Amino acid sequence: xxxxxxxxxxxxxxxxxxxxxxxxxxxxxxxxxxxxxxxxxxxxxxxxxxxxxxxxxxxxxxxxxxxxxxxxxxxxxxxxxxxxxxxxxxxxxxxxxxxxxxxxxxxxxxxxxxxxxxxxxxxxxxxxxxxxxxxxxxxxxxxxxxxxxxxxxxxxxxxxxxxxxxxxxxxxxxxxxxxxxxxxxxxxxxxxxxxxxxxxxxxxxxxxxxxxxxxxxxxxxxxxxxxxxxxxxxxxxxxxxxxxxxxxxxxxxxxxxxxxxxxxxxxxxxxxxxxxxxxxxxxxxxxxxxxxxxxxxxxxxxxxxxxxxxxx
Length: 312
Known about the structure:
alpha/beta, D-Maltodextrin-Binding Protein, domain 2, five-stranded mixed β-sheet, 11 helices, elongated
């Protein structure tokens, strides 16, 4: 690497040869960056101190050259670290955060996680949102992104299969049959995710329609923008019952359930959750590395621990 002169963005001031009798005990060479885009790490300031006692001028120069070489090798390593931005369906927020933390430890890259309903994330991606990877709660949006060219062909895969649980913390329902209470709501509310934007809302509606309960519960429905908001409604007591994800029902931070019932998978379309690498990340080692990490044993174990079925 050439240092100094021309278009090189890195400038190291050339040391002047000291005059006899005025030889300092050290020389200081400072590495400068001419723009923010050229900084390998924000706020990085580097100084090279080269002891010169008893080395003579040539010895000092050799030591300085070695120090500069070592410095650039270190900066190259720092500069290689990237940030991958991952759009995550709300139901998968907690396992995604755990996976991101383990990936950061393993790779040295950083991960920025954004959560929302799959429909909202899809709309943002179509409108140019700067995401590298999508972890959806369905397979439809990743397929559409692949077909439109916004997702990279061949990178789409199923990373988890979810499930629904009917859940309550209502003291009046303590020890009662949760499913049976759907026919006895009265003035009580049932929370589900919005079927227009959230795959878990679609599955909830499919179950209710198939069980002949939709017309009974429809007047008492309260819709969350996503499955996380549906959980908030029922966990806070604003709704008596909620159709939430099995993963959420396993969260130890929730209040104790007074009743719950796992909705059979046969009563709705499979909640097949797919991931896809987005076009923006075509040349990103961090993004492709993160997708590869999702395929690995560490991520698969985290997904399983959170109550999802992991495809073989």
